[in-house]
Every structure is written in C-alpha cells, then in structure tokens.
Amino acid sequence: MQNKKRDLVQWLHTDSVVSNSLALIVGILTGLTIVIYDRSLALSSHLFFQHKAGESNYYVIFLPVIGGLLVGMITHYLMKKKRYSIENVIEATTLHGGKMQPKTVFLEVLSSLISLGSGASAGKEAPVVLAGAGIGSTLAQTIKMRGNKLKILLGCGASSGIAAAFNAPLAGVVFSVEVILGELESSTFIPIVISSVFATLTSNVVFGVRPIQISQYQLVNPFHESILYLILGVISGVVSVIFMRSLYRVRDFFKSLKVHPIVKPAIGGLGVGIIGFFYPQIFGVGYEVISQVLANELVFKVIVALLLLKIVAFSLSLGSGGSGGSFVPALFIGSMLGGAYGFIVNQIFPGFTSEPGAYALAGMGAVFTGVTRAPLTAILILFELTHDYNLVLPIMLACVLSNLVSSTLHPESIFTESLRRRGFTIRKGKEVDIMESLKVADAMKREVQTISMNKKAEALIALMQSSRHVGFPVMDSEGKLWGIVTLKDIRDKVKQGELDKTVGEIANSNLIVAYPDESLNTVLQRLATKDIGRLPVVSREDNRQILGIITRSDIVKLYDKTVVERMKYRSE
What we know:
Elements (H helix, E strand, L loop, with lengths): L1 H11 L2 H35 L13 H16 L7 H10 L6 H16 L7 H18 L4 H20 L2 H13 L4 H21 L15 H35 L7 H15 L8 H8 L5 H20 L7 H22 L7 H17 L2 H12 L5 H18 L6 H6 L4 E2 L2 E2 L2 H4 L2 H4 L7 E2 L4 H11 L3 E5 L5 E6 H7 L9 H4 L13 H11 L3 E5 L7 E6 H20 L1
Parallel strand pairs: 3-4
Antiparallel strand pairs: 1-2, 4-5, 6-7
Helix pairs in contact: 2-5, 2-6, 2-7, 2-9, 3-5, 3-11, 5-6, 6-7, 7-8, 7-9, 8-9, 8-16, 10-13, 10-14, 10-15, 10-17, 11-13, 12-14, 13-14, 14-15, 15-16, 15-17, 16-17
C-alpha cells in the first residue's frame, strides 16, 4: 500500500502531470477572464453610448475623443509608454523567456475596455489573448518556472484566449503554434490542447459567451466557383497589405506629431468619431455588422463604404495610440471585401454562384490570413464557427493565395512588422541572427564620391588625399557605374611618372556589387570571399545605377550600434 502511495506521489510530481495541471488552471482562469472582459466591455459600451431622449447624436463624435484621452493618461502616467499587444507576446516568448509584466498586461486590457467601449474601431480578441498570455506567464513566474516551461504556459494562455473568444479550441491550439511559439512538440502540444479545451468549456459552455453567428452556405458550381475564390484570395492578399501599411503609416505620422502623448489617442478618436457619425457601423468591435453582411442584409454601396472606412478608422484608432486588436478588424474588412466581391460575381455570373454571404465568409479568412500569416488558424476558426464543411475547400484556396500574395508584397505580418522596425526579425518563434536581419540599406552611405573614367591618375591621387578614402566608384561618360578603383589598383598599375594614365585604364571594370535589400551577413561573406573592403550598392533593375557604397567599417558600426540598442531595450 505504501509503495502505491509513493508511486502515486512520484507520478503527480512528474513534469508532464505538473505541466498539464497548470495548463488546465490557465485555461479555466483565461476562460473566466474572457467572461469578465466580455461583460465589462458591454458595460463600457453602454456607459459611453447610452442615448438620452431629446439629445442630438452629434455627441457620438466626441465619445472616442474622451476614451482616447483616458487611454492617453493611463499609458503615459501608469505604463510609462511601455505597451503590450500580440507582437509583445511574440517578443516575450522569443526574446524574454516568456516573461511578461502583470501590471502592464492589466493596464493594457483596461485601456482596451475604455478604447473599445468609447467606439475605437479595433478588436477585442488581441486583448484577451494578451490577458491569457499574461495569466500563463504570471503563474509560471509565481511558482519559479523557467525556460521552456514558462514559454509553454504563456502559449497555453494565448491559445486559451483565441479558443474561448471564438469558441474554437482547435484554432486556439494552431494559433499558438503558428504565431506565438512557432514550433510543435509533444511537450508543448498537449498542455496547449488542455488549456484551449477548458477555456472554451468555461467561457462558452458554462457562461454562454457566443462569437459571430454565421449562416451556412454551399458551392453552386464547384469548378467555376473555385476559380472565383482563387481570384478573391489574390485580391484579399493585396487588401491585407493595404490594411497593414495604412496602420503603420498612421502610426509613423502620430509618432512624428509634435503634441503631448496624452492628446494623440484623442486626435485619432476625433477622426473615428467623425467617420462614425456618418457610418456608426465602424464603431467598436463590429460583430453585428459582420453578421449582417454574412446574412446578405447590407446593400452593395454600404459594404464598399464600410470596407474603405474601416481601414481608415482602424488605422486611426491604433495608430494614434489607442488600445485594441487587429483580429476582428481583419475579419470585418475581409467580410466586406468578400461581400462586395460576391455582389459583383452574382451580377456577372447569375445562376451558378453562391450568395454574397458565402464570399464574405471566404474573404474573412483570406484577409485574416494575409494580415496574420496564420492560414491554418483562419481556416479552423471559420470551420469551428460554422461547423460546416461545404465551403472549407474554397476557403482554403482563398487563404493560401492571400498568404502567398501578401507575404510576397510585404514579408512581415502585422505583428512582426512592429518587431522588425525595432530591429528584431522573428521567424518560427526564433530570432534571426542580427547580421541576417539587418539590410544593406540600413548601413550603406548614400552620398558617394565618384570619379570619371576619363580623369587622370594624378586627379585620382589628389582626390584620395583630400577625401582620405582609398576607393571610389568609377563612372562612364553617361553617368553610369563602370567600375571601381582603389589604392591597390594605383600601386599595381601606375609606375613612377605614369600619372597621365586615365582612371579607366587603372580601375577594375569586373564589378562585384551589393543590393539594398540584401542582408549584411550576405554582403560580409562576399567581401571576405573576394578579399575586398567596399562594394558599390546598385539597383536590382539596373546594375549600372549606383545608389550608395558599403564598407566593412559601415557593417561593423551598424552591428555594434544594434547590439547596444538591443541590450538597452532588454534591460528596460
């Protein structure tokens, strides 16, 4: 009997049992958190948007302004400009061992309640993913877990957030693997599945939190419609890039805006309020509007207007410093794009195309994929929302094409773009080597001293003495790059008294060049292989069009600067 008790105790203390038990706890806590968040968001929206009898609705313009001011004060005074979103969950997993700051997570979630409640045009799924990841990370840090175990619990929280928010446990698991952790192992997979299942049970089965309601559709003409869905996938990829670039353009604008940081979210809120006065459908999360387009309840003109205005409103909401996520806006824009596309193909091909709502459903998945680069997550979310296999194949086609087009036009997802701008290149849950992540365009000198191939050696020597450079690109009579000349060329080819030789006779015309989009690691290897100290940087479209010059010292300086900046950032 004692041996059995001892065996039971030993089994209870094994890594797998402890990890799975903690995953269960994280799932339940995340599910409860989402229930509280959902109820709190409904209360926040009611407090901001409750209509008073006899009062003009012009006041709705200023509701996002009030919310923006409150968020600005929270972020400036309490968060000290340290913000959290999905990209920070990825960063915490990859660069900080899974550690997140509970206070910052709480304040960011609180800010999102104010932002979304006051009408900010963003999503609520990112905040709940953030909350789940924060729960997992905090629990792991509290019991002194380290290394991969801490990362696993963070991943459990992130997957639980998606699972409970969409009633999609499979999608939650795949999201954590595709976006957060970047890898799939048995030690990781089982705990994530457990947390996703229990988060879904807690929020949806016990408390009845329900996501988007979607009608069921089927293909009318499988062969011809598959081609139409492929075209929709291509268009969705392009729209996904526009969606991402709009956000970062607006974010760059507000960063450069010379006003107090507290005021910036309010300025963005004013823009959202003005749009929302004419089209109130862009306010808040927008689940009801998505359901309307899926049920074919919106007219074509309204759908097109909402497609364009939602991109603007979303960019203003988050770009100005508001709080919220990009998941649901991507689904919103995708549904509008698909709905508009469905109306068009129904007019062109009447009789053998599905209702516009079917294309709206595929558009949701395709734009979501193009923005997040998580095609499996998108496919599974839609499958688990509809519980219908009829449109899975065309949705898969649209998602895959959108992912291909979007990644070709814009290599980073909406999450990793923010990290790239701070010098971190994340691939499959791991940081790419610094030298591989930095590009030639980041290090090269754009102002280049050149010399004509018709100049004499005497002029070349004088230029070297005055500039203290030992190499120059050589240009032909048309101003095109012809070659490169160095001090070594003078020593090898110019004898005593031969200063009347032209630069064209001395220089090396067998050019070895670099391109602006190449990594520093690639160029450094090229310099080492050829035993040279500098390379002209040229356009890929025209190898004779010089854009700059890069040297070994340029590469070393940028590398040292980047290392110092990263060390400083990680210590904050």
